Amino acid sequence: MVVSSTLVNVAEDAELRLVSLLSEKAASSDFAATCEACIASEDAAKLIQTIVSDASALSALVQHESSEEAVGAFSILVALLDSSTQSLTSILDAIVQQDGDSSRKLALISVLYNMRADSQEKCTILSRMFPLASPGDLAEDQTLGRLLVEESTGLLTNPSIPRIVAMLDSWNVSDSSRRHLYRLIAESMSGTSKQRFLLLLVATYQNQSVDADGLKVAKEVSIGAIRDPISLFTQQRNLMTQPAVQALAKTEPILSGLLQVFQEGRLTDYQQYLQNNGGEDKVLKPFDLDVAASERYMKILSLCSLAAEHEEIPYETVVDTLQTELGQVESWVIAAVGSGLLEAKMDQLVQKVMVERCVVRQFDMNQWKVLQNRLQAWKKNVGGVLDSLKQSQTIAAKAK
Hints:
Layout lengths: L13 H10 L7 H10 L3 H10 L1 H9 L3 H13 L5 H12 L5 H14 L3 H11 L13 H6 L1 E3 L7 E3 H9 L3 H13 L3 H12 L9 H16 L5 H4 L6 H4 L1 H4 L1 H12 L2 H10 L3 H4 L7 H19 L2 E3 H8 L6 H10 L3 E6 L4 E7 L6 H35 L1
Antiparallel strand pairs: 1-2, 3-5, 4-5
Helix pairs in contact: 1-2, 1-5, 2-3, 3-6, 4-5, 5-7, 6-8, 7-8, 8-11, 11-12, 12-13, 13-17, 20-22
Pfam families: eIF3m_C_helix, PCI
GO biological process, one term: formation of cytoplasmic translation initiation complex
Keywords: Cytoplasm, Initiation factor, Protein biosynthesis
């Protein structure tokens, strides 16, 4: 039998060894003969179709005792692939649907990822990999985990994004493909990591007409932003500007209004909102939001809003704003500092909070104007210092 040397650049009998391994589990009695005929005629497409259509044969790769041998055999099969996405998808689906260890299936699909160059194909392959991943596979030192590590963008409004976002940008991946991938990544994660990809997902809905899936994502990400408004503060700060989230005003008005309070309001606004909309049972509990945690976050956010407006805050002002006791002021300042949203010191003698730095909850045109005014004031002050220095130098020169 003549073995094809044009199908794959490996040892002459590689294809036959692949068929031999798969035949051990093949359901069809003529599986080996059919595959050998394909090899003899150099018909790679039919060979792939024959292998993929026999699920029992492919189980040999997932269940083989030697992971190294299974991966090596699968590499031969991948090398037979033409540029057809259909062939790629059929192999992916066939492997995913096999019974067996997810880590082995992930190892096999990783071979596909590494051996394919087309960006759309790689995106498709990634969409099969993340659902198979365990928490350990998503660690920073693992292949998939490295894609989720955040890198700096150099932007004030969004200082960091996961590496996979930049990679998809370079591939010019469509919004529909991104949505599918971001959703799968989010479903494989929990907590803050999950919320990060839900935020990326909701940002792909930029059209004014948001479909049912977009509204579902918007609802999920809004609940996440209320449940924890601090961990991803920068990424969530302008959530209300997203078209999908704005569309919630019609479908989920209570949730939309509550999100706006968490984005812009203070404790008194939050309390008034609860009162106007039926209380905690009507506003918080339908979305499984914790009553105590929600109030605590609103107090921290209210303190940040106060700190963004004043460089020095009397303790009594904090007491009034947070509706707390004088003896609790320092605890709340410590909580705000611990959240990373505020940098401040406390002067216990004069009972004032000295603000060093504070986040701005809504960074829009008004904040840009405030920043411009401050820069102009600093420029004027520096100019005055330079003028004084020049005058001093002139006087000193004359004195000589």
